[in-house]
What we know:
Radius of gyration: 22 Å
Order of helices and strands: EEEEEEHEHEHEHEHHHEHEHHEHHEEE
Number of strands: 16
Bound molecules: dihydropyrimidine-2,4(1H,3H)-dione, zinc ion
CATH class of the domain at 58-372: Alpha Beta
Largest sheet: 8 strands, mixed
Helix content: 25-40%
Amino acid sequence: MIDTAFDLVIRHARIATASDTFSADIGITGGRIVQLGTNLGAGKKKIDAAGRTVTPGGVDAHCHLDQPMAPPVRMADDFNTGTRAAACGGTTTVISFAAQEKGQSLRAAVDDYHRRADGRAHIDYSFHLIVSDPTAQVLTEELPALIAEGYTSFKIYMTYDDLKLDDGQILDVLDVARQHGAMAMIHAENADCIEWLTRRLEAGGRTAPRFHAHARPMLVEREATHRAIALAELVDVPILIVHVSGREAIEQIRWARSHGLQVFAETCPQYLFLTAEDLGIDDSYQGARCICSPPPRDKANQEIIWNGLNDGLFTLFSSDHAPFNYDGSEGKKPGGSEVEFRHIPNGLAGIETRMALLYSEGVLGGRITLQKFVELTATNPAKAYGLHPRKGTIAIGSDADLVIWDERDLVLRNTQLHHAVDHTPYEGMALKAWPGLTLSRGEVVWDGQEFHGRAGSGQFLSRGAPSLMPRQPGGRA
Ligand code: DUC
Ligand code: ZN
Ligand code: ZN
């Protein structure tokens, strides 16, 4: 008896990559794509895509899962619920953050984070590092060793008291990125400006959630973005500015690019679909749900973000999923009470909705092409963080991480989502599509109705060097 050629064949797929759309069958064996073509031979299993669009599974390269928080605050999603939600929303790889506490060794932070993830993930995952305490030991030993082991990216903060680095420390850390070929991600907001504005607001009794946006105007982001670019220019290293919210930071990034500097940029759904008004138009506490940093801006800035997605300003579209419940004592009401905005945990749930929001409003809404969608949600994140071509594309040899899209009208309800958060900022939004099927390394983890994952089936991914753009001599584009 002749053995069948493939473990699984997906027939009649309209395959979309970052560069093409073409019709083909997809032959999958051992969790990898082994053949693409028409009229492929039989497989042990078959799925008929019936001409529907098939994209690479999403790579969500910026999400926070089970990140240690100061009690009583706790993230609502761990690796189990977070990766479950990701899979149901068409994401098949997540990169979350192993965060160093001040005084802690980076290695201890990584070891602790592995313990949190081990045996829990339903899809493949990897870790960025957060460097909050760049001691000599971290700079000369731990960070280089971890980069060599495949933790090839790290985030640095210019705000948050427990995480922020000063300019000298940022220069030191960027220099390690340059020497060892890592990708440096920067949270660009000016901490002193935020603190000064916050104190003034508090002195005037303006402490409701909506004042979070007043304490973090675009100027604060613009100044820090400008400074980050200057520091990176001094060190001569590419950087990636994360969660860019609007015009003023974008102007800085365009300026840097026009001067030949390698500055990459990421944005997130909250800057396309929310505005500062979602933090409240009066002093009610409801708006705490939409507190994140940088804060959402206004309709005009949403348009500017759409333009940036279209014209190549943005390289990545990530969720910045930072999951906190609204009710209870562990999330947006620390200790169970309504607190001043400075004490409200920053972050939104978005790991499950990222892909459908952009597909629906971007692709089907005629704002971006299908190729751009794939590039922003899968291919570029995989390239930026050393996972391409194993992840982020549909090609022979790549992992069979795939999404088959159902184009249908639906209304987003938190009750239908699979995260452990008690709300979604996008409740009630009308969408035109949702993943009808998600495959993680050839296994169905979401069939459009039910979740089929298995905790522990997700593998940790050690990553290679960023491959977004070849580095030129001198580090310039
Ligand atoms: N801002 C961050 O920098 N991280 C998590 C969530 C947020 O709003
Ligand atoms: Zn951040
Ligand atoms: Zn973040």
